[in-house]
Amino acid sequence: ARKVGEVIRNVLGVAASAIEFPLGLIKDTARPAYWTPDHELSACAVCELPFGPRKPIHHCRGCGLGVCNDCSMARRPVASRGWESPVRICDKCDKRAEL
């Protein structure tokens, strides 16, 4: 029974790894070209704190950089990028008069 459990865990681990890679690839290709890909981000572009389970990556719709939630609380339209309704922007972009 223990051997069967180990085999099942190994198979599930391989399957999970196979699923994670394509999902990340799909995620990056479905995003606007000006966004920095997730795999290139390690820390928030504003506060420079590292990303992790408690600090997930968000993308500023203005500049496309990876930012944390605390540094991207503002919402404004970004007509220059095609966002007519208010969308997430980082604190740096929020200080700019035009987006």
Descriptive notes:
This protein is of the alpha+beta class and 99 residues long. The protein folds into two domains: 1-30; 34-99, Zinc/RING finger domain, C3HC4 (zinc finger) (Herpes Virus-1, 2-Layer Sandwich). It is built from two helices and four strands. It has helices at residues 2-29, 91-94; strands at 58-59, 66-67, 74-78, 83-89. It has a two-stranded antiparallel sheet. The chain is elongated. It starts with a helix and ends in a 5-residue tail after the last helix.
Summarize, please.
32% of the residues lie in helices and 16% in strands. The protein has helices at residues 2-29, 91-94, and strands spanning 58-59, 66-67, 74-78, 83-89. The strands form two sheets. The protein has a two-stranded antiparallel ribbon with strand order 1-2. A two-stranded antiparallel ribbon has the order 3-4.
Topology:
Layout: H1 2-29, E1 58-59, E2 66-67, E3 74-78, E4 83-89, H2 91-94
Antiparallel strand pairs: 1-2, 3-4
Keywords:
Herpes Virus-1, 16% strand, two-stranded antiparallel ribbon, 2 helices, 4 strands, ZFYV1, 2 domains, elongated, phosphatidylinositol-3-phosphate binding, 99 residues, alpha+beta
